[in-house]
Write a structure and sequence with these properties.
Elements: H1 4-13, H2 50-62, H3 85-93, E1 96-99, E2 108-111, H4 125-131, H5 143-146, H6 150-159, E3 176-177, E4 185-186, H7 207-222, H8 226-255
Antiparallel strand pairs: 1-2, 3-4
């Protein structure tokens, strides 16, 4: 498990720097179309697959949290994914945060509480770069919104590694081939493999399943209010339809004597 952490940490760093163009070519410097998958949260009536998001959280917790923070995600929001209050408290207690000052004016460390946000695994950006060969591991809170078609982007990138790049792609020293990264070479090694994480719920641990679950979880961290927003939009549309009907009936009543 310990070897998996730096691998996933390395690869997820690529999420911050990649973009995908609509061209379908394999030549160096050109991008290929993203893998497209139907997600339960897509569409007007879509909702998150909470089981998948929980599995994605497990992958984050066991693997990528060693190098990537979730700066804009509070522990207590995990209850929206179906975790109990006690489970959230237990997860938060695994982390320490800086608090204070105390009565002597000193900052101090304490176990995190549900109201705290996920702390960064590094004290500062320089420390993060020093630990990762000069590359800065990005915060993953909004990663799925930082790129167009973000859910499919995360999913594709995690599945885009290959040990045998096309003959027309020259891979530099210390770089790895990824079909969905601009230029097709990325400094981060392949992060996930089959059986990388043993799911608590017994779901088969294929590479595709890992990638799908991580993509779902990071989409939730980026848009935790997605379902609420869709619900409000639906209510507004229903209200407008009813209001339009009332206006039309009122107009007919007012002008009925003139026709």
């Amino acid at each position: 498990m310990s070897t998996m952490k730096p691998l996933l940490a390395a690869a997820l760093m690529g999420l911050a720097g990649a973009s995908v163009l609509p061209d379908s070519a394999n030549a160096a410097g050109e991008a290929v179309p993203l893998l497209e998958k139907s997600w339960p949260h897509d569409g007007v009536f879509g909702a998150y697959d909470r089981a998948a998001a929980q599995r994605g959280f497990q992958v984050y917790r066991e693997v990528c949290s060693a190098c990537h923070g979730l700066e804009f995600v509070a522990f207590r929001t995990l209850q929206y994914l179906g975790f109990s209050e006690e489970e959230v408290k237990a997860v938060a207690a695994e982390y320490t945060v800086i608090d204070g000052p105390d009565d002597e004016g000193e900052m101090f460390e304490r176990p995190a509480r549900p109201s705290d946000r996920y702390p960064s695994p590094y004290p500062n950006a320089n420390a993060a770069r020093a630990a990762n060969g000069g590359a800065y591991p990005p915060d993953l809170s909004l990663m799925a919104k930082a790129r167009p078609n973000g859910t499919n982007y995360v999913y594709s990138l995690l599945l885009g590694y290959s040990d045998e790049p096309p003959s027309d792609v020259e891979i530099g020293d210390g770089m790895n081939y990824n079909a969905y990264y601009p230029g097709h070479q990325i400094a981060m090694a392949q992060p996930l493999y089959e059986d990388a994480v043993e799911y608590i719920d017994g779901t088969p641990t294929t590479l595709e399943q890992h990638a799908s679950d991580v993509a779902t979880f990071l989409t939730w961290t980026a848009e935790p209010k997605l379902e609420e927003r869709k619900g409000m939009g639906l209510k507004v549309m229903i209200f407008l339809v009813i209001l339009t009907g009332l206006f039309y009936a009122t107009k007919r009543k007012i002008w009925s004597d003139l026709h």
